[in-house]
């Protein structure tokens, strides 16, 4: 039944204006003491015009953001199999401990003697990451995965500079996430793409042919972006080392192997770890993340400041490049000491799971993905044969001649109450569908998702392309005009008169 | 003079010592709705096959290469306000820039319309 | 294990569907010997109660700023965060969502980002702002790289009043891209003027970076500097570490700044021992396509209703790869939401009111400290932070104050470990959270320490 309402609201789906359209002068959501009105010492630069902020009371603000939240899909809402993003359950215990007095209210520039517990916590989080990866060193400061990549590649650049070598070519598989080439370019490297084999792995022969004395290293995601373990990873490591280069591993998919495979045993020199993927810190609608980087002995001396060291019973924060202990830090990546709030959450998660639980978690993640793969493989077209790791990749061959695209199918999946999978990535597969269920999903919800996808595929095959072209139907907003948004960007609210 | 075409899907129209350059109808169709065109500055020296402009659709940004050596003398400012012109009239009002050529003989290396048509059909 | 729903029976039946004998078989691509057969050498799983107890033990070893009089600033500021903020950001629909790639089911995130962008543009006095960066220091570095792209030049001039960590991050980001970073050393008692940097600006200069208020707390008009930059074709970047300040002082946009960026932590966010924070980044309409980071824009949906989408994403790394404007993927989503909610509660009156309250508290604190023998406030102007010259090394004084239960500021020697001439200077910040009693306790403790 379809009808319009007077308000535009539809039951629990409420329309909501911008705060700028709701404000009234004189309203406020805070009660403050009245300023005494002393003579200011602002250097004569006292603000003399309005900022242009709307006035709202507290109940209005609460209602506004509550209504906005109801237009969002999160992991708490339902199945969220967004490939390569590891949308696992975010435990509330993590949130609780991150807000504890003595943690949340610590200032980054407090004297060391007043933050021994904080430094111990960072050291403890680092210890877990070192044992899980088998690596000798870790830099905790990178703000997110992309900055972790920058950290790793800068360390490689610094190590090459220290060797007095002008190697500038970085080998990157064509299936790599776009951040890899962007990061390499930011470190002054040129990117040379390595082709994939027909089974979705690095083409070892092509890789070997590209090695030379100008090669700085390889950036390889393992498990890779096709959801597959790189069988030849050790050979790749040996070859790149023999050629005088370094092995950067993109750890975006670490969740598949935590507690089962130690990256150190694969010959890597550096790897970032997305705490917001593997270690359950919330994605928060796109951040904040955290991307610690583990290092081999060859790169460890070049890790950036600041870092924590243990001196007897005390913990010490090394904040200057001068205080080096023989180290040669390449610089500083962040204003302060890293994403402490995320270390607390990640440590809370790691302690909760323990060594046994983490191993079970990665196993369940891989089991769930392979189960989903098994359930869908007859109807959807599997990109590469064999078992997958923590995510299953399909191409759009199964949609050929239906007039339905990967995007259309995804939009119809939204109406079924699921967040769609990752689409059109990795680029090596035509019309890619990358599905990552994670270990925190029940068999029942995976079954429900698979049943829904299979029903939609049957509908597509029945020739109802028009239905898909117009999906989704049941969301607060339907397909949005991205072309109009990009041609004439409107990036802020402006008052009518302006 | 009749239009000439490059393998990178640019067209060139050469008249009175100035070459007008744009992207072909085939190129705009493959790119989809164009949302922005980054044009070269007037006075910029271009090298054949080097970067000259960037054309953006919602989902892709593609480099436009200089089909010939030369210096930019004019950029189509109309595209700043109305990038859709590239979709609507790719081989006329939707031109990108004009350049003075350093070597007219390079024109001979480009395809004529019939050859370009064959080239596109072979893709 | 409470986070793992699969039962033993589930696992058995799933393996059967897959056609595998064991989970280990699914790992058959792992090279010989690299697959562990036992858990690694770390403690085994714990219940909520035990984890909470462990974490509380660590927390108890710290001296939290909420538990003692605290006057710490230098780039991070303690303010009162209304209870509403933390409630909203813990709603699962915000907390557990991802980057809004599917706008039909992410209008909540997208609309607040649009509101966030408008708030940031408003307080900085700029045309547009992005959906946030990682923190103030990385925003500064990205601003310099953006200026280099926009001007096609390779030299950045940094003012001596710029926070040294911001300078270090900027130098780190520039070191491998052939960008020259020039600048002057700052000093709290030597007034930095536009002329200080004038002779460094030349035809190759992409940008000049100044901080406002500067790292020593001083407030200066940068209109002349903007003119000097523009005369040479360079951009003026104005950096800030205290977003609350613009409720009390003129916006950097009013000087003619081309990029304004800095730290947004002080609105809506806890101190968190340095992170996560939220970088704010604003610029002019003219430069918007050079701007790094995510952007949310307004559009309409299929039914003609207003909605929001991520836009201009072709600048980003997943499309442009090695030609991207920056390698940054995410923003500081949840921190920007905290900022937006706090800002919405403040409104015009609240934002300007709390800013003046900060300034007045700082004025009171400055007067109290100035009256202490052996302590002298050196600033003529300041917002909520100022520099004090002490008769003793500031680091020792701060340590002695800790013994009296007071977090009494940041010694400049911590920020400038190589500058012997700055050893006796202390950076003191005061906010609306500081009571008259805090100020009196601080002054009397300082008196004892300096006696």
Outline the structure in words.
- The complex is a heterotrimer of chains A (about 500), B (about 120) and C (about 450).
- In chain A, about 35% of the residues lie in helices and about 10% in strands.
- With about 500 residues, chain A is an alpha/beta fold.
- Chain A has two domains: about 95-350, 3-Layer(aba) Sandwich (Aspartate Aminotransferase, domain 2); about 355-485, Aspartate Aminotransferase, domain 1 (Alpha-Beta Complex), CATH 3.90.1150.
- The radius of gyration of chain B is 13 Å and the shape is globular.
- With about 450 residues, chain C is of the alpha/beta class.
- Helices cover about 35% and strands about 15% of the residues of chain C.
- Chain C has 15 helices and 13 strands.
- Classes of the chains: A alpha/beta (about 500), B alpha+beta (about 120), C alpha/beta (about 450).
- Chains A and C meet through helix 1, helix 2, helix 3, helix 4 and helix 5 of A and helix 1, helix 2, helix 3, helix 4 and helix 5 of C.
- Chain A: Keywords: Oxidoreductase, Pyridoxal phosphate.
- Chain A: This is glycine dehydrogenase (aminomethyl-transferring).
Features:
heterotrimer, B: 123 residues, alpha+beta, OB fold (Dihydrolipoamide Acetyltransferase, E2P), 3-stranded antiparallel β-sheet, 4 helices, globular, C: alpha/beta, 3 domains, 2-oxoA_DH_lipoyl-BS (chain B), Glycine cleavage system H protein (chain B)
What is the topological layout?
The complex is a heterotrimer of chains A (498), B (123) and C (451).
Chain A: H1 58-69, H2 92-98, H3 116-133, E1 137-139, H4 145-163, E2 169-173, H5 179-186, E3 190-194, H6 204-210, E4 215-221, H7 233-242, E5 246-250, E6 270-272, H8 275-278, E7 293-295, E8 307-311, E9 314-318, H9 340-376, E10 381-382, E11 392-395, H10 406-415, E12 422-423, E13 433-435, H11 443-461, H12 465-469, H13 482-487
Parallel strand pairs in A: 2-3, 2-4, 4-5, 5-6
Antiparallel strand pairs in A: 1-7, 6-7, 8-9, 10-11, 11-13, 12-13
Helix pairs in contact in A: 2-9, 3-9, 4-5, 9-11
Chain B: E1 4-5, E2 10-15, E3 18-23, H1 25-31, E4 34-38, E5 45-46, E6 51-57, E7 61-65, E8 70-75, H2 78-81, H3 85-88, E9 97-101, H4 113-121
Antiparallel strand pairs in B: 1-2, 2-3, 3-9, 4-6, 5-8, 6-7, 8-9
Chain C: H1 8-18, H2 23-26, H3 48-60, H4 83-89, H5 92-95, H6 107-124, E1 128-129, H7 136-151, E2 155-158, H8 164-174, E3 180-183, H9 194-198, E4 205-211, H10 223-231, E5 235-240, E6 259-263, E7 279-283, E8 296-300, E9 306-310, H11 317-320, H12 333-370, E10 375-377, E11 385-390, H13 394-403, E12 410-411, H14 412-415, E13 425-429, H15 436-450
Parallel strand pairs in C: 2-3, 2-4, 4-5, 5-6
Antiparallel strand pairs in C: 1-7, 6-7, 8-9, 10-11, 11-13, 12-13
Helix pairs in contact in C: 4-12, 6-12, 7-8, 12-15
């Amino acid at each position: 039944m379809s009808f319009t309402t007077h308000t535009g609201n539809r039951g629990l789906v409420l329309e909501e204006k911008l705060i700028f359209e709701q404000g009234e002068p004189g309203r406020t959501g805070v009660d403050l003491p009245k300023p005494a009105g002393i003579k200011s010492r602002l250097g004569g630069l006292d603000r003399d015009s309005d900022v242009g902020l709307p006035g709202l009371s507290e109940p209005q603000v609460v209602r506004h953001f509550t209504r906005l939240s109801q237009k969002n899909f999160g992991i708490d809402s339902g199945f969220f199999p967004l490939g390569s993003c590891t949308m696992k359950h975010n435990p509330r215990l993590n949130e609780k401990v991150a807000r504890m007095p003595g943690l949340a209210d610590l200032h980054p520039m407090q004297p060391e003697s007043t933050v021994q517990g904080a430094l111990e916590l960072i050291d403890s989080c680092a210890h877990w990451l070192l044992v899980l990866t088998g690596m000798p060193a870790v830099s905790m400061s990178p703000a997110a995965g992309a900055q972790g990549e920058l950290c790793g590649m800068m360390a490689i650049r610094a190590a090459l500079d220290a060797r007095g070598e002008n190697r500038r070519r970085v080998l990157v598989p064509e299936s790599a996430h776009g951040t890899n080439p962007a990061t390499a370019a930011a470190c002054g490297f040129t990117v040379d793409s390595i082709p994939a084999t027909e089974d979705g792995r690095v083409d070892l022969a092509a890789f070997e042919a590209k090695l030379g004395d100008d090669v700085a290293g390889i950036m390889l995601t393992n498990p890779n972006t096709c959801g597959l373990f790189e069988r030849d990873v050790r050979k790749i490591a040996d070859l790149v080392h023999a050629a005088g280069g370094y092995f950067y591993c993109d750890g975006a998919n670490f969740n598949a192997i935590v507690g089962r495979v130690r990256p150190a045993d694969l010959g890597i020199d550096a790897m970032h770890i997305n705490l917001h993927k593997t270690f359950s810190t919330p994605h928060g609608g796109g951040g904040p993340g955290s991307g610690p980087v583990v290092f081999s002995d060859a790169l460890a001396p070049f890790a950036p400041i600041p870092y924590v060291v243990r001196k007897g019973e005390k913990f010490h924060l090394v904040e200057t490049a001068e205080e080096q202990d023989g180290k040669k830090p390449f610089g500083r990546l962040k204003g302060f000491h890293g994403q402490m709030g995320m270390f607390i959450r990640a440590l809370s998660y790691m302690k909760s799971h323990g060594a046994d639980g983490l191993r079970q978690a990665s196993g369940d993640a891989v089991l769930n993905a392979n189960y989903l793969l098994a359930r869908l493989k007859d109807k959807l077209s599997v990109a590469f044969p064999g078992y997958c790791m923590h995510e299953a990749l399909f191409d759009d061959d199964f949609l050929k001649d239906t007039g339905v695209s990967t995007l259309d199918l995804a939009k119809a999946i939204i109406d079924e109450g699921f967040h769609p999978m990752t689409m059109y990535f990795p680029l090596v597969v035509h019309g890619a569908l990358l599905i990552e269920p994670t270990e925190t999903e029940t068999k029942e919800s995976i079954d429900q998702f698979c049943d829904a996808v299979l029903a939609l595929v049957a509908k597509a095959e029945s020739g109802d392309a028009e239905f898909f072209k117009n999906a989704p139907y049941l969301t607060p907003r339907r397909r949005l005009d991205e072309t109009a948004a990009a041609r004439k960007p409107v990036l802020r609210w402006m008052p009518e008169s302006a | 003079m009749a239009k000439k075409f490059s393998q990178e899907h640019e067209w060139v129209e050469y008249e009175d010592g100035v070459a007008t350059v744009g992207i072909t109808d085939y190129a705009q169709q493959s790119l989809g709705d164009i949302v922005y065109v980054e044009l070269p500055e007037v006075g910029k020296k271009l090298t054949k096959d080097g970067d000259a402009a960037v054309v953006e659709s919602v989902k892709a940004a593609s480099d436009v290469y200089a089909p010939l050596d030369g210096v930019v003398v004019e950029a189509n400012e109309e595209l700043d306000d109305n990038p859709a012109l590239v979709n609507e009239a790719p081989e006329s009002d939707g031109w990108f820039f004009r350049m003075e050529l350093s070597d007219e003989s390079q024109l001979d290396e480009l395809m004529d319309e019939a050859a370009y048509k064959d080239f596109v059909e072979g893709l | 294990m409470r986070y793992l729903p699969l039962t033993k029976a589930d696992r058995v039946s799933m393996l059967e569907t897959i056609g595998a004998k064991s989970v280990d078989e699914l790992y058959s691509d792992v090279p010989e010997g690299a697959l562990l057969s036992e858990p690694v050498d770390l403690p085994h799983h714990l219940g909520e109660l035990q984890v909470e107890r462990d974490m509380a033990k660590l927390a108890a070893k710290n001296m939290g700023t909420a538990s003692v009089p605290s006057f710490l600033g230098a780039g991070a500021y303690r303010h009162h965060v209304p209870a509403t903020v933390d409630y909203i950001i813990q709603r699962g629909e915000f907390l557990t969502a991802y980057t809004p790639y599917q706008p039909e089911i992410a209008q909540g995130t997208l609309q607040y980002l649009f509101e966030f962008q408008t708030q940031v543009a408003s307080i900085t006095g700029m045309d547009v702002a992005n959906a946030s960066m990682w923190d103030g220091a990385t925003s500064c570095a990205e601003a310099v790289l953006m200026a280099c792209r926009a001007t096609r030049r390779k030299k950045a001039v940094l003012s001596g009043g710029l926070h040294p960590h911001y300078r270090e991050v900027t130098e780190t980001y520039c070191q491998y891209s052939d960008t020259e970073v020039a600048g002057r050393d700052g000093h709290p008692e030597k007034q930095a003027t536009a002329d200080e940097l004038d002779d460094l600006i030349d035809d190759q200069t992409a940008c000049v970076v100044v901080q406002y208020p500067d790292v020593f707390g001083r407030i200066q008009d940068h209109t002349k500097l903007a003119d000097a930059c523009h005369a040479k074709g360079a951009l003026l970047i104005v950096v800030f570490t205290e977003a609350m300040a613009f409720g009390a002082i003129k916006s950097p946009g009013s000087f003619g700044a081309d990029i304004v960026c800095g730290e947004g932590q002080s609105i809506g966010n806890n101190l968190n021992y340095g992170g996560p924070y939220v970088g704010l980044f604003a610029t002019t309409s003219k430069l918007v396509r050079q701007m790094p980071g995510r952007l949310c824009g307004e559009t309409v949906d299929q039914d003609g209703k207003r909605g929001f989408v991520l836009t201009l994403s072709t600048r980003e790394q997943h499309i442009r790869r090695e030609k991207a404007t920056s390698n940054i993927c995410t923003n500081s989503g949840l921190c920007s939401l905290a900022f937006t909610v706090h800002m919405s509660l403040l409104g015009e009156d609240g934002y300007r009111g709390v800013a003046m309250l900060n300034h007045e508290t700082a004025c009171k604190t400055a007067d109290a400290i100035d009256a202490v023998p052996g302590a002298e406030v050196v600033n003529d102007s300041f917002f909520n932070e100022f520099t004090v010259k002490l008769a003793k090394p500031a680091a020792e004084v701060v340590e002695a104050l800790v013994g009296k239960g007071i977090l009494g500021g940041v010694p400049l020697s911590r920020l400038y470990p190589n500058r012997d001439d700055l050893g006796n200077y202390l950076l003191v910040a005061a906010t609306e959270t500081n009571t008259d009693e805090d100020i009196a306790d601080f002054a009397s403790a300082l008196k004892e320490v300096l006696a």
